[in-house]
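Q: For a teaching session next week I want to show students how multiple molecules come together into a single three-dimensional assembly. I've collected the sequence lines for a complex. Could you give me the predicted structure tokens for the whole thing so I can convert them for display?
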Amino acid sequence: MATLPPGQQRDELLAQLRATRDTLMSAEWLTRIRRAPPEQRTAAADAQFKVHIAILDFETAELDDIRDDLIANSAELSRATGGLKDALTSLNRVAAVLKAVSGFLDVVAKVVKLV
Amino acid sequence: MTFPPQQLISPALTHTMLTAHATVHRVRSFTLPALTLALAGCATTARLNNFDVLSKAGGAYSDAMVAAVDYAESLGVQADSAVLIETRSERVSAAQDLAAKEGRKDLSEDEQNALFDTLLNALTTSDDLLAKQMQVLADIRHHVGLLKDYFAALGLLAGAGDTDSAIGESASGLLTSMGNISKGLAGVKVGEQTLAEFAGAGTPLIVAQLRAHNLEAQLRQDGQLLDRELKTLGGLAAFLTEKIRSDSQAVQGPQETTLVTDPYTSFNALPEDWASKRVGFFQRKADLSALNAVQDAAGKLRLALRAAAEGRIGADQLAMTVKDMNTLADWLAKLKHGGG
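A: Of course. Below is the structure for the complete assembly, covering every listed component.
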């Protein structure tokens, strides 16, 4: 495949390619081309296919960039999720420790009464 | 009172104990009216409910994004097939018409080989590109799953009902034990309530505040990450919206030609369902505008997350987002299963 243009230029080209395919796959165009001479039909098929393949190529390049941006966040996102889970575990631990302290203080209270 | 060694106390417990201690002091000095406590409880409950709605909005948004990716992927394959079918038909009929023009009934062997090569090359080129694109979409889908996990964890922390009651009972027991030790504490009353009775009502509030505090702190810490993430996903939504619109046109064009335009431009009688089929194509074009809701949702979530980290969040607006996203995810799933 040819080297793809970067960012914004690629977006503009993709928009133009899609607009072209929209026309080449529209009901009006297809109705006319199906009645056209064989040479024109072959040329139309070539154009439709080339435009479509270029769209697939550009789309994948764009999605690649988006994926890279997202994956750059993946590790941090997993860590953040872990942080939330830790906070929940912490809350659970609070219950356990409070229970233990409460039991300890009950014993102290009994000892104080004996004294 | 005696605290366990410092290393055994988590920061969360320390916070709870200090809050509890401060609350007891306030009780002792009789400066905390029960009404204030009740109002504080309502406010904290409302904050936690908002976090719960926020987690649901995030989950619904993640589901809608996955549905959009799924639908874009499925429609992309349909669009590719539509182009392959249309170009194949044009090439084959053109080659046959050219042969007929020259008075031949069949294509020559060379013509057949050339056509075979062209068609096979088209199919394999499409297959390769689609496979590559589907792999990227699968990676993105997997990543959106991580965002959903985040919001699910946020929801667990926001609505940790069982944990609350366990902590509430334990903290209540702790305060009762403190009352047993200290005569001063044992005699304390808040209005008509003893300290133990008060503790039963007050500790869930302490725990709820601890949870809300944790959630806000976590969102402040994760704010930039989530903002970046949602900004990128907003860009993805915009991209998918355009892709779906264009692929839909590629899929529908040949269908519309066969079902609407060809019958209309022929000189034969129109099929009885011609008008209803035509309406169907128009309806479909209008429906695609609903995809804009996915883009809007990313912006709403970003604002809501910022507001939540600052303790000011509007649950009503988020509830609408949850509803919109659920509707959209259902709609995309139906479209996917109903074809392009």
